[in-house]
């Protein structure tokens, strides 16, 4: 069999009352006599009594100001007042509880009953509420006799109850409270607009930062691609340098025989000629005839491309010949 009720308690607190307590907290913050918001936004009231004129704002005495609202203080003999002690648990439904208390204790008929109340104290367990009950007809008779007003909404009605001023509901206080409500809405709209502007500024700033971040990321990606291309080019350049070094080493180790033969042909001139040319690596074996073989050998020795020039066999002149026969060993490379 299913349970007829669900358990809505959290840490021993009935969660079904959260909404009522939240509403009560906002009501006290905006509408209570000791509310800092009401002290700033509520109008001053010009209070007339048998003792003269005074000015009040949010239930407290204030300096003389030009007040648009007026109120009449009823004498104590027209007021039935009580000091109620109520548990804190009824705070969220305090207006309804006060209405029940008035219905139970008012000596006047329901249509003739008017009342007002004000929280004057609290402790850890109880609330202290000043409750004032008046007769509508008696109150308006007093106002007509003393101040010549017959319109119940032309002025507010206040009373002294347990040492504080209490506003009797249902008279001229409605206009002041309506203007206060409009001020609350206007201030709320301004605060909401300011919050929207603030959030919009944050959103714009975040959007700009996001655009900047995107640009930075794009730059980073471009840089990364350029770095990768540069690395590839550097690697290719390194490989090319290695190939060039190998080619140079090969050229040094194995010079071109055609180039060397052309060089030697240009060096020997018309007074000599080459009979045999052979080249093994950097060693040239050169045979030929020259008018002056010693001068030719000296000429070759002075060339910077040859490390050494030596005679493989003695220079000799054959009988009946004008030119000397030479046999040279030439080592390629710069002189040591």
Short description:
The chain is α+β, with helices and mostly antiparallel strands and 336 residues long. Helix content is 43%, strand content 30%. It has helices at 18-31, 36-41, 94-105, 136-147, 173-253, 257-268, 293-301; strands spanning 9-10, 13-14, 44-49, 52-57, 60-61, 69-73, 79-87, 113-122, 126-135, 156-161, 164-168, 272-280, 283-290, 306-317, 324-332.
Describe this protein's structure.
The protein is α+β, with helices and mostly antiparallel strands and 336 residues long. 43% of the residues lie in helices and 30% in strands. It has helices spanning 18-31, 36-41, 94-105, 136-147, 173-253, 257-268, 293-301, and strands at 9-10, 13-14, 44-49, 52-57, 60-61, 69-73, 79-87, 113-122, 126-135, 156-161, 164-168, 272-280, 283-290, 306-317, 324-332. The strands form four sheets. Strands 5-4-3-6-10-11 form a six-stranded mixed beta sheet, with no helix packed on it. Strands 12-13-15-14 form a four-stranded antiparallel beta sheet, with helices on one face. A hairpin with a 2-residue loop joins strand 10 (156-161) and strand 11 (164-168). The chain is rod-shaped and about 175 Å long. The model has no long low-confidence stretch (mean pLDDT 84).
Descriptive tags:
336 residues; Gyrase A, domain 2; six-stranded mixed β-sheet; four-stranded antiparallel β-sheet; 7 helices
- Main-sheet strand order equals 5-4-3-6-10-11
The largest sheet, given as strand count, sense and whether it forms a barrel, is: 6 strands, mixed
Radius of gyration: 59 Å
Question: Percentage of helical residues?
Answer: 40-55%
- Low-pLDDT runs: none
């Amino acid at each position: 069999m299913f349970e007829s009720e669900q358990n809505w308690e959290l840490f021993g607190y009935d969660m079904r009352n959260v909404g009522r307590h939240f509403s009560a907290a906002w009501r006290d913050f905006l509408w209570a006599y000791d509310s800092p918001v009401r002290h700033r936004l509520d109008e001053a009231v010009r209070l007339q009594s048998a003792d003269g004129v005074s000015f009040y704002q949010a239930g407290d005495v204030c300096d003389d100001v030009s007040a648009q609202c007026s109120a009449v203080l009823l004498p104590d003999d027209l007021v039935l007042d009580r000091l109620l002690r109520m548990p804190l648990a009824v705070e969220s439904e305090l207006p309804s509880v006060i209405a029940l208390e008035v219905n139970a204790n008012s000596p006047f008929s329901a249509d003739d009953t008017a009342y007002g109340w004000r929280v004057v104290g609290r402790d850890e367990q109880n609330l202290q509420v000043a409750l004032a009950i008046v007769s509508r007809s008696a109150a308006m008779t007093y106002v007509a006799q003393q101040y010549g007003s017959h319109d119940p909404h032309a002025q507010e009605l206040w009373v002294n109850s347990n040492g504080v001023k209490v506003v009797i509901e249902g008279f001229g206080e409605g206009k002041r409270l309506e203007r206060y409500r409009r001020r609350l809405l206007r201030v709320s709209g301004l605060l909401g607009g300011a919050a929207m502007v603030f959030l919009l500024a944050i959103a714009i700033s975040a959007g700009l930062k996001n655009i900047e971040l995107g640009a930075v990321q794009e730059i980073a990606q471009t840089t990364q691609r350029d770095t990768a291309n540069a690395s590839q080019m550097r690697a290719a350049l390194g490989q090319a340098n290695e190939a060039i070094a190998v080619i140079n080493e090969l050229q040094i180790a194995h010079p071109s025989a055609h180039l060397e033969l052309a060089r030697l042909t240009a060096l020997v001139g018309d007074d000599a000629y080459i009979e045999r040319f052979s080249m093994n690596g950097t060693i040239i074996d050169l045979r030929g005839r020259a008018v002056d073989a010693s001068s030719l050998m000296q000429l070759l020795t002075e060339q910077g491309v040859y490390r050494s020039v030596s005679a493989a066999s003695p220079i000799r002149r054959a009988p009946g010949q004008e030119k000397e026969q030479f046999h040279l060993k030439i080592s390629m490379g710069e002189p040591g």
